[in-house]
């Protein structure tokens, strides 16, 4: 068992046939794909393995990290990434707007002054175009803001308040949003695949 829950609930990066990241799934669902033959395990050196090959390879990859899947007949390391052997599409995945996702997108930073607002008491949500002016609660009109900047801006646009946004707000890509909230070990395991796909560089 892994700390924080079952290994079967750990996350696995899913690549399509063109080696593009298309989804993040669980170890349990990844194993289902491996058993059905619709996916192979892929390692950082781009070697792919069927389930049978991975069982054999696990004898060499296993380093005592505790991520071993055991059954009465099989024993193998929980994969970090799988490769879908037939799926070559890149589905459009929209990130649902929520306060939690906004915190991750804006990296717990006030988008006006750059102050860290990890303490809930220090932060608020600002509508770039105020709701009183018809501004909507959407990715491109909402930013994380410290209370001081929110008070300064008031019911005005940034231009009217003489303030400037650090970055233009927009809907985040699911890959970059999720990676911001994953532990360093998982980022390291996935880095090469996401870099290949041309995604933003992962911060440590």
Mind describing the biggest β-sheet? 5 strands, mixed
String of helices and strands: EEHEEHEEEHEEHHHH
Q: Using DSSP, what is the number of strands?
A: 9
Q: Please, what is the average pLDDT? A: 84
Strand content: 15-25%
Q: Report Rg.
A: 21 Å
Q: Describe the oligomeric state of these chains in a short phrase.
A: single chain
Estimate nothing, just give the exact number of structural domains: 2
GO molecular function, one term: endonuclease activity
Protein name: HNH endonuclease
Pfam families: HNH_5
Keywords: Endonuclease, Hydrolase, Nuclease
Write a structural description.
The chain has 204 residues and is an alpha+beta fold. The chain folds into 2 domains: 7-92 and 174-196, no CATH class; 99-161, DNA Binding (I), subunit A (Orthogonal Bundle). The protein is built from 7 helices and 9 strands. The protein has helices at residues 27-36, 51-61, 99-105, 147-153, 158-161, 174-180, 184-196; strands spanning 11-15, 21-26, 39-42, 48-49, 68-70, 75-77, 81-84, 123-127, 142-146. The strands form 3 sheets. The chain has a 5-stranded mixed β-sheet, with helices on both faces. It is elongated, with a radius of gyration of 21 Å. The chain starts with 10 loop residues before the first strand and ends in an 8-residue tail after the last helix. Mean pLDDT is 84; it is low at 1-5 and 198-204.
